[in-house]
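Extended Data, panel c. Modelled sequence:
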Amino acid sequence: MFVVFAVLVGLVPVIPAVIYVLQNGKTSPAKAISRLVTGFNAFNFLVGFMAAGLALVWLASPTSVLAAGNAQAGIGDQYASLAAALSTGLACIGAGIAVGGSGAAAVGATAEKPESFGRSLIFVGLSEGIAIYGLIISFLVLPR
């Protein structure tokens, strides 16, 4: 499973890399290939560093200790914490995108027309609520 994951992670930058070479290879192909190889080296270094950290954690935690901890805690669903983390993280990313757009528009509207501050503040607050909804869902998903 780990090998499949590592291969898929290694193939992620291939499509943007091909697009980059096709766009920039017409003017200076040697420079485009040189930058591409440098970028792949940096990306592969980061993936290797993360894989080494994962292997270190995996080797440093014995399976029997982890199994005893789960049995003592009485955890029913092993994916509940993953679901909570994903709901909170993705909701916060979405809220950040929404606040970025509505906040810029609110600043622009307030600069042109100062009396529109209250109305634009409501829209920014509504987009911040997306993160709170994700947090509420993560509290509902986690076991009691």
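The mean pLDDT is 78. This feature is highlighted in the accompanying rendering.
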